[in-house]
Request: fold
Amino acid sequence: MYAIVMAGGAGTRLWPLSRRGAPKQLLALTGETSLLQQTVSRLGSLLKPHDIYVITSAAHVRATRDQLPQLPPDNVLGEPLARSTAVAAGLATVLARRESDEVALILPADHFVADEDRFADALRAAARVAERGYLVTLGVAPTHAATGYGYIRVGERLHPDDPAAAVDRFVEKPDGATAAAYLDEGGHLWNSGIFAWRTYAFRQAVERFQPALAGALTRIEALHRTPGWMSDVRDICEPLDAISIDVGIAEPAAAEGRMAVVPLEAGWSDIGSWSALLEALTAAQGKDLVASGRHLDRGSHNVLVQGGDRLVVTVGLDGVIIVDTPDALLVCSRERAEDIKPVLDEIARTAGERYL
Amino acid sequence: MYAIVMAGGAGTRLWPLSRRGAPKQLLALTGETSLLQQTVSRLGSLLKPHDIYVITSAAHVRATRDQLPQLPPDNVLGEPLARSTAVAAGLATVLARRESDEVALILPADHFVADEDRFADALRAAARVAERGYLVTLGVAPTHAATGYGYIRVGERLHPDDPAAAVDRFVEKPDGATAAAYLDEGGHLWNSGIFAWRTYAFRQAVERFQPALAGALTRIEALHRTPGWMSDVRDICEPLDAISIDVGIAEPAAAEGRMAVVPLEAGWSDIGSWSALLEALTAAQGKDLVASGRHLDRGSHNVLVQGGDRLVVTVGLDGVIIVDTPDALLVCSRERAEDIKPVLDEIARTAGERYL
Reply:
């Protein structure tokens, strides 16, 4: 078994802490270590360091290696250009040159997990289902009618004694009413974006659903480590569409009954926004004000303070997120944290690219 | 006629912009120039510069003179120690050595006025009433049931054609229900802390209601500009109680029918807190988001951003005050702006005196 940690995201919704030069996964958002370091450390009970690969953009290979001294440097793979998760997973699979009957765990580098033991148990369960040839995803029991996650409609159990089930279908991020109906109706899980599959099963799915990607991977495999090969890899990947695993692989595989889902109940969050981080940390810490840095409060609730070097004083706030960085400050309503992304365009236009 | 601008306040409720070294009146909170500069400039239509005096703490004399190059340097008077407004007004009166039949205007240095013409008209009206021997205060028509201001119960008109009236009595800052009843009932004005009186009338009131202060002033008068006299002034003032004009002079004078009130309707605010500043600026500018510095917003209302050098981005906030300074950041609910004062003790204790 081996793992591919997907560290190619930008995390722009976590501006102003997340920047082009310091993307989300490299930040210590939830504790002393970065999300990437936590993701790799979380695999410690399942895998040896040389079985853990990280794929990130070429620009962040050095910083990623620096954060993960326990991994062989060659296990940190640089993507010459960003083409979403299916391409990244394919590239990492080929570059890792693992046996086709091995199980690969595919994990985003920037998620939060409160209960590490239950998380490891879920990965083990997913690996067992994957050994039987399924493409397996981890599904999270919804705690509220979130509109920021994709949903999985759960199908028949694979075995009466096993919580693993077939995936009926994937649903893209629904609106609030649909999400509420799913919550009411039951039988729906959040799509965590964490997968397990046998290498051959994945390659086979790529061939079937993404033939252009499959062709590219075959060509890259042939090139492997010839002189100047990364430049060739770039040329090969350049014409590919950006294809996510969810849309490009998992959705069509589910339609053909090849996808299974294993439930994950471990205080998981994808920290897709500041409000998701607030929610994850307040749940994990059992309090409604979460602060880092030098901070004093009087009577605030549902507040996240991501502090820097300055003293931050909050008074009487409710549902507010404060992110303090040396050159930019964000103060945002918890309900409106998703609106940061459109603001970034305006920032680039009026305040300057240097803030991104 | 002459004016005494009272610039002895600390403005701790406007932390973290207002600090020990840079008190409220020296800050540009409402525009390009400081509150002190605006207060002095506002007197320009009434008085020549050499008839305008400023009394401030000895520590701020230099900064005050720097901000007011149009005044003779000797018109900026340094108080050797802080003993509240009655002592400061008495000291300034004695140090200014004006004739006893001249009218003195007494104005706090740190107020905001939207309509300068109506303000000057009200001062002229107050001066006319003061010439007749009254101690005159400016009273502001309440716009809401504020609990941060003292109230004046208005008595009989002095003359049917003149809005000036006797002061029935002063009421210290009331609770919310009492303030609401005053608003309902009518006949109450906010106490602006702006006064006009003839010099002899003030000295007479000091003799009658504050004999210890009167004795101190007589001794200081005799000392005037003898060698080392400021050290003697300090020794003379040291044993005096801190006595405000409101409590020490105006209240007992009202009880004896010596106080008159002239209405002031000029968009006045004492900017006693960040929420008062927000209210004053939104009313003056006709918008519900007031920001200084580099700032971007998406969908916020009732927000004050007092920015510094950094980019400040606000998203979806309602009723929030943000004050950004190089070493400290305040994010405060508009409703809880008064709670900053108790927080300062905690800041001193846990974060350090250097933040004050």
Observations:
- The radius of gyration of chain A is 20 Å.
- The first strand of chain A starts at residue 2 and ends at 7.
- The mean pLDDT of chain A is 94.
